[in-house]
Amino acid sequence: TVSMILVIAQLTMPLMACLALHQIISKKISKNEALKALKLSTAIVGGLLLVLGIIGGGLFEFSGAADETYREKYPELITALVSDRQSMLQTDSFRSLFLILAAAALIWALVQNKLKESLALSIMSLLVLGDLWTVDKKYLNEENFVTKSESTDAFALTAADQQILQDKDPNYRVFNTTRNPFNDAITSYHHKSIGGYHGAKLSRYQDLIENQLSKQNMSVINMLNTKYVIVGQ
Q1: What single-letter DSSP state applies at residue 228?
Q2: What is the CA radius of gyration of the chain?
Q3: What is the pLDDT of residues 187-200, one digit of tens each?
Q4: How does 10-24 read in b/e, with b if 16+ C-beta sit within 10 Å?
Q5: How many CA atoms within 13 Å lie on the side-chain side of 230?
Q6: Among 96, 139, 151, 195, whose Cα sits 20 to 30 Å from the Cα of 186?
Q7: pLDDT tens per residue across span 96-119
Q8: How does DSSP assign 15-78, residue by residue?
Q9: Which residues of 88-123 are buried (b: 16+ CB within 10 A; e: fewer)?
Q10: For all residues of the chain together, what is the average pLDDT?
Q11: C-beta atoms surrounding 62 within 10 Å
Q12: pTM of the shown model
């Protein structure tokens, strides 16, 4: 999806942080330069987080276009969503502020030779691990793991699949209209499908989908070497 572009920031910002830490540890920048940069960066980032934590709830609307679907029927739901979003911003701002200050204190102690390099890096690693662990557990935890049998249930053969698979010709394709053909990959688990899903669409094929396949143009379906069309039961 388009939002995957965020991976660039997620990779480059920690990488730049590691490079900066390496510069400090290897003494490639002077003590005064390091302290000046540390003071400035902590003040800027910490100050921004403090503002967001204190008054961030009043700076944004916390409502998107998708909310309009529910606004008339369920106004109390929208109120609750906005409140939750405000709370998340403020809670995460203070959490990030704590991590920033802790990291800054470690770097200050390292530059001032108050801490040994190995100890400072160990504590920094624990901070990073704790940050990643607590956030990632919200997205991937014990509830997300299922048994192998449960995982394969989604790919169980239908009567249509069983019938089609009796055909040993390796060159035919299948058009499954019982699912959204172009947002579904399950059909491709068993057959060569003319559908499927990818976040970055091939423009020419997308033209074909929108102008021909969506209108059930059988000549184009035939052109794509479709031998079987699954409809209804």
Answers
A1: E
A2: 27
A3: 999 999 998 888 77
A4: eeeeeeeeeebbeeb
A5: 23
A6: 139
A7: 999 999 999 999 999 999 999 999
A8: HHHHHHHHHHHTT-S-HHHHHHHHHHHHHHHHHHHHHHHHHGGGTS----GGGHHHHTT-HHHH
A9: ebbeebeebbeebeebbebbbebbeeebeeeebeeb
A10: 90
A11: 19
A12: 0.66
Phi, psi angle pair for 228, to nearest 5°: -130, 135
Phi and psi at 7, nearest 5°, equal -55, -30
The two three-digit tokens of residue 92, written as one number: 């995460």
What does the alpha-carbon distance between residue 211 and residue 219 come to, in Å, rounded to a whole number?
13
Measured between its terminal Cα atoms, the distance across the chain in Å is 32
CA distance 78 to 62: 10
Spatial distance between the Cα atoms of 138 and 140, rounded to a whole number of angstroms: 6
